[in-house]
From TrEMBL:
One term under GO cellular component: cytosol
Gene: hisD
Cofactor section: Zn(2+)
Pathway terms, separated by semicolons: Amino-acid biosynthesis; L-histidine biosynthesis; L-histidine from 5-phospho-alpha-D-ribose 1-diphosphate: step 9/9
Binding sites annotated in the UniProt record for NAD(+): Y123, Q185, N208
Source organism per UniProt: Pyramidobacter porci
Keywords: Amino-acid biosynthesis, Histidine biosynthesis, Metal-binding, NAD, Oxidoreductase, Zinc
Name of the molecule in the record: Histidinol dehydrogenase
Amino acid sequence: MIRILKCGEVADEDILARAIPTADVGSVVAEIIADVRKNGDAALKKYAEKFDGARLETLTVTPAEIEAAMAQVTPEFIGILEKAAGNIRAFHSRQVRNGFIINDEPGVVIGQKIIPMDRAGIYVPGGTAAYPSTVLMDLIPAKIAGVREIIMTTPPRRDGSIDPAILAAARVAGADRIFKSGGAQAIAALAYGTESVPRVDKIVGPGNAFVAEAKKQVFGAVSIDMIAGPSEILVIADGRTNPRWCAADLLSQAEHDTMASAVLITDSMALAQAVQAEIERQLPKLERSEIARAAIENNGKIIVADTLAKAVEIANAIAPEHLELCVDAPFDYLDGIRHAGSVFLGRHCPEALGDYFAGPNHTLPTGGTARFSSPLSVDDFVKKSQYIYYTRDALRKAAPDVAGFARQEGLTGHARSVLSRTEEKQ
Ligand SMILES: NC(=O)c1ccc[n+]([C@@H]2O[C@H](COP(=O)([O-])OP(=O)(O)OC[C@H]3O[C@@H](n4cnc5c(N)ncnc54)[C@H](O)[C@@H]3O)[C@@H](O)[C@H]2O)c1
Ligand SMILES: N[C@H](CO)Cc1c[nH]c[nH+]1
Ligand SMILES: [Zn+2]
């Protein structure tokens, strides 16, 4: 049963605590990465068999497999994918940035340009559930950014196939190449390359604890978006909120992963008790009730605070992936929310709306990293480069200052390089 904690009666650490996987994920992942670096495709196939139960001849998804998948999914589902993709494109198109150029001073031009990544790797989770929505969320911003080549990896099913809905979403969103590999081994392949999987410049996408740890370990050899691990929901609700809706929203994220987290903060003990009972009533009805129950036991809690202002303070300390504001006048609270991946405003905005359809991204920082990370966006798929142009006259004007600065640092070579151009004839 989900615990009720009363603020002031329990220690702050208990309120903020979050269980993390007990297995030694770090060393397991380090071993897998070393193996993939050494043995390439053979290691990927070995782990596909070990962890996914799939014996693979080849790791590459063929065009024929994508065609077959398109025929397997219903036209209704293709229609939903396209509608969702339209909303996601509309939102992410607004994130596109332009370079800039400044020539305020005579003879000086300085600027910054925006360059899409050459090659991005998108990890799509697929261990305990297939996530076609993540395909759209992660691929569409890359496409909009203008990435030259988008590589997607996802774990195979036991029969060696990929869920057709995943392949259909990849077709709608425009993946260039798709590989059957999951977990830490897929991240290692994207970071270092294998015979089949090309090395990428940046890896994005959520995953379980093994995926998140692998992204941490390969960072530096390759860029990563963020650590997007087990899903999290934090609901702030006042006493006028329907407990059935609260319970359903908490369970919607609990069903992702046994280590997912589901937290309600309310100023009403009556609501807290009603939601506690409602969770017990709804849990057995879920298809993934065992996963959701484990998550509720590991990382589920209801915190009763004296005021909603205190609820916001606790929410900022937790920095959740998703934050629902089920209160009157939700926009009044928005400025006060400083740390959350995505905020859902009002009682008619369940988090699932953002998971699939509204348009903002669902790949979001977890584990408190919303304190310093942002949702996946077009920015993740571009980098910047600067440029400088000076005429001889402009350089002559700047030379004494540059040389003075260089001498201060004891770098007379720098001073020389500037002065030589202004003192000597061409
Ligand atoms: N933050 C987000 O935006 C977001 C979006 C969707 C899903 N998620 C999260 O992604 C996660 C998906 O997890 P998943 O497990 O279903 O799929 P996954 O694809 O992340 O992981 C499956 C892989 O984990 C590896 N693995 C499993 N057990 C292992 C072991 N004992 N040792 C080494 N490797 C092992 C296997 O290689 C397997 O292919 C969930 O936690 C879900 O909450 C997050
Ligand atoms: N809630 C997940 C992010 O934590 C995203 C997702 C995909 N499908 C359903 N939900
Ligand atoms: Zn979800």
